[in-house]
Amino acid sequence: MSNPVVFLAVDTGRGGGIGGSVVIVEALWWCSMECDGVAVVVDRVIIEIKMLYAIALPMIITGLLIYGKSLISMLFLGYLGKDALAGGSLAIGIANITGYSVISGLAMGMEAISSQAFGAKQWPLMCQTLKRTVIILLFACIPVSISWLNIQPLLVIFNQDPQISAVASTYLTFCLPDLVFQALINPLKIYLRSQNVTLPLMCAAGFALVLHAPINYFLVEFLKLGVRGIAVAVTVTDFIFLVTLIVYLCFSSGTNVQKSWLCNWGIIQCFDHEWRSILNLSLPSCISVCLEWWWYELMILLSGILPNAAVSVATMGILIQATSLVYIFPSALSLAASTRVGNELGANQPSKAKTSSYVALFCAVLTSFIATCLMALFGGAWGRAFTEDEAIVALAAAVMPVVGLCELGNCPQTAGCGVLRGSARPSLGVHINLGSFYGVGLPLAVFMGFGLKMGLLGLWLGLFGAQIVCAVLMVWVLRRTDWVGQAKRARELIGMEINDEEPAQQK
Predict the structure, then answer these.
(1) With contact defined as beta carbons under 8 Å apart, do 267 and 131 qualify?
(2) How far is the C-alpha of 193 from the C-alpha of 200, rounded, in Å?
(3) Nearest to 354 by CA among 335, 367, 366, 337
(4) Whole-structure pTM value
(5) What sign for the dihedral angle of Cα 405, 407, 408, 413?
(6) What residues form the membrane-spanning segments (predicted)?
(7) C-beta atoms surrounding 36 within 10 Å
(8) How many CB atoms lie within 10 A of CB 387?
(9) Residue 67: which of 376, 388, 380, 329 has the closest Cα?
(10) Residue 342 exposed, middle or buried by CB count within 10 Å (0-12, 13-18, 19+)
(11) Read out DSSP for 167-189?
(12) Contact 320/296 with Cβ under 8 angstroms?
């Protein structure tokens, strides 16, 4: 804070006397103090925004690059024909529901421990947390792999087309190695991000994407591997991404990364009593992620039983592609918020953690308004980018404004989820998501879509209701958070002694 301006009391000779001058001086002094206080707050907010987006911007670019990889795979599936596209799309949906959502959710359990350990400079704990998470994910791959290998008879039982089911089964079988690679990639991404190291993630994703299209072309066009080639290309691309990250970690000159990476890599230490703490965070995080991922798959199933199901399902797929693209931005902000809140709590700075959470929420609200406007503005053009079918284009253009409105709740609630993860409260996120999406959103979507015969528009209005309820609950939870108490919880989580003295910066 800058020094207050000093004013001299002078008798003006206008009847006020020296007493009146003193009153004026005091008022000016307090005004100066108020202005200085506001300036300090503004400075803190600006600094926090810079720190948040120093993490978020590379993660946004990384997300866009990964989205580009999925888009290239879909283009090559479409090149192979209708059956390949249908079977590949079915396989990708199954992989997301049964595999990647589980791996991603379980990995998020390490976010709180890693970010708080980094804030407290507990380098060995970061290394141990990474090892434990990798072991958990590798064990989780076993039941997922078994389900993928036996997926074809299950699909036939559920009345899926046998030929499409065969294509989906082939795709999943050749994607099995990718499941293991993702079990390594996800923890490494969180491990680096918790240390505010995001540029290598962006570079690794970019390098892998550059090679993805040529690999697809070689396997599909020259080796004539068809759907198998596209699945293998996904696996090879993620393997390149993984190797790039490991090379960076092994040869990094970053002091903090070296301190946490070059630790004792003994496996036996991973099986001590402390693994329970990460499981207590991983399981709720996994459930929270799965609840949200599964909702969109459920939306596709519901659209399949609407009148004119073919148009509804196709339009739903196009709209979900739009919301998936937009989701990259609040998701990156959520990851940044989780890192920042965890770092500050680990450093025993509850005031800064509170500031980080509020600034992240403010940025999320701004993002939501921008996303809403853009989606409403480009609704018609988005549908036409995927198809020339006028019925699908018209329905997409009609529903897209509501899809945009969903972002008014989605962006703040996504940022709020990041804050809860950073403060080691994923169970709270599970309860909020379960109540909002399945207690409010699902009944509302069914009622409006089928009861009121609003069709696809009604389903998205149900999602809009769920997102708003979820966002309101997140804001309420953050407003009631005892940040000093959360800082004490963080010290307990990372195994550090708690001083009786109050932290330097209070709530």
Answers:
(1) yes
(2) 10
(3) 337
(4) 0.84
(5) positive
(6) 52-78, 90-113, 134-158, 164-185, 197-219, 225-251, 278-296, 316-337, 358-379, 391-409, 430-451, 457-478
(7) 15
(8) 14
(9) 329
(10) buried
(11) HHHHHHHHTHHHHHHHHHHHHHH
(12) yes
Instruction: Tell me what pLDDT residue 446 has.
Output: 92
Q: Which tens digits make up the pLDDT trace of 359-417?
A: 999 999 999 999 999 988 887 788 887 777 788 888 888 999 999 999 999 999 999 99
Average pLDDT over residues 164-183: 92
Yes or no: say if 112 and 421 are a contact pair by the CB < 8 Å rule: yes
Q: Contact at 8 Å (CB) between 377 and 147?
A: no
Specify the pLDDT at position 217: 94
Chain-centre distance of CA 164, in angstroms?
A: 31
Question: How far apart, in whole angstroms, are the C-alpha atoms of residue 453 and residue 75?
Answer: 34
Predicted local distance difference test score (pLDDT) of residue 34: 55
If you write DSSP's letter for every residue of 403-459 in order, what string do you get?
HHHHHHHHHHHHHHHHHHHHTT-HHHHHHHHIIIIIIIIHHHHHIIIIIS--THHHH
Residues 62 and 198 sit within 8 Å (Cβ to Cβ): yes
pLDDT digits (tens, 9 = 90+) for 54-93: 999 999 999 999 888 888 888 888 888 877 877 887 888 8
Which residues are CB-contacts of 98 (< 8 A; sequence separation ≥ 6)? 144, 147, 148
Please choose, from the candidates 507, 172, 494, 151, the residue with its C-alpha nearest in 3D space to the C-alpha of residue 347. 494
* pLDDT reading at 330 higher than 60: yes
Full 3-state SS string of 32-92? HHHHHHHHHHHHHHHHHHHHHHHHHHHHHHHHHHHHHHHHHHHHHHHHHCHHHHHHHHHHH
Token output for 293: 């991922």
pLDDT of 6 reads 40
Q: For the chain, what percent of residues have pLDDT higher than 90?
A: 40
Q: What angle do CA 262, 267, 268 make, to 5 degrees?
A: 125
Residue with tokens 């979507």, as numbered in its chain: 445
Q: How far is it, in rounded angstroms, from Cα 163 to Cα 425?
A: 45
Q: What is the pLDDT of residue 85?
A: 78
pLDDT, residue 81, reads: 82
- Backbone dihedral region for residue 9 (phi beyond 0: left; psi -120 to 50: alpha; all else: beta): beta
End-to-end CA distance of the chain: give it in Å, rounded: 19
- CA distances in angstroms from 81 to 74, 85, 122, 227, 316, listed in the order given: 11, 6, 53, 10, 21
Return the number of other C-beta atoms located less than 10 Å from residue 56's C-beta.
27
Tell whether the model's pLDDT for residue 184 goes beyond 80: yes
Average pLDDT, the chain: 83
3-state secondary structure of 467: helix
Number of alpha carbons in the 13 Å side-chain half-sphere of residue 125: 25
d(CA 417, CA 436): 13
> Tokens 């995001």 sit at which residue?
198
CB 302 within 8 A of CB 134: no
